[in-house]
Amino acid sequence: MIWCVTAGPRYAPAILNKIAGISNCGDVTAAHLDAITGTLNLSSRDIISLKLGDFDGLTGLNELNLFRNFPTPPAGIFDELTGPRQLDMAEVGGRTRGRLPAGIFDELTGLEHLNLAGCLLTTLPAGIFDNNTTLKMLFLPNNNLTTVPADIFDNLTALDTLYLHGNSGLTLPANIFDELVALEGLHLSRNNLTTLPADIFDNLTALKYLYLSHNNLTTLPENIFDNLTVLAGVLLDRNPGEPFSPVRNAGSDQMVSRGAVVSLSGAATGPWGNNVAWEWVQVDGANSNTVVTDGVTLTGATDATASFTAPSRTTTLHFKLTARSAAGPSRGTASGVD
Fold first, then answer.
1. What's this model's pTM, rounded to 2 decimal places?
2. Is the model more confident about 228 or about 98?
3. What's the CA angle centered on 201, arms 198 and 207, to 5 degrees?
4. Fewer CB atoms inside 10 Å of the end CB: C or N, the chain?
């Protein structure tokens, strides 16, 4: 049959191993192919070419693994392969042209996991992911992408994790992530980023983990993380501007009456916006970090504004305000005594 000739000696055994009682590819029927389920693993098989029709009939596959094969897939190669939830093409085609045909994933409308790591891609065709609306994980690290179309991810509203690290000269359009409303993990490390658009993360309200380490960021736009209210961790290490601490202001010195209710009003500027964790403590001197354990009772000590009742005797009190990112291990802390 035609499939036997097309598949070739390195491809056919992987298929035959999935069909009980068949040892000759010439005996494989369309019904045999349709009945194949699970994973077809063709990784590292030194496949030197892929042709239209190679995967036709394999409608029951859940996963296709082409990892570390070097042919650039032709347009239409997956058009009859409508079933897979996972497609691993890491390092596929990376030693040839470093590009993908437009529309190559158009018929994979149930795809949830797509791995294009290390393919040395220099560009992504416009609309290449438009039909992959069920995609949850997309791997694009360690390519040679310098820019991507501004709307390249617009249809990926179910995407949970995006790996875009290791593209050393990448520039990000301002609205590149606007439609990724379900995104929880975003990997942007090692992209040699020197700047970020001020509102680039504004719509990522589900984001929990953001990786920006090993870039060339010296400053970050004011309030760039303000909308990331569920952020659990952001890594900013190995950037020239590390640690990007909030610049805190504990307010001016006050002279108050004995027994009066006194307000301490803190403020912070920097990339974190409202995404700041506060801590007020009483200390024993203007330049001290020693906490007074038997001092006044602070109300709202973990808020920007705290209060206490002034003692009935004349004295001088000192309070230390610490402001840090509320996003876990962000390495962004500022403190001072007033």
1. 0.86
2. 228
3. 155
4. N
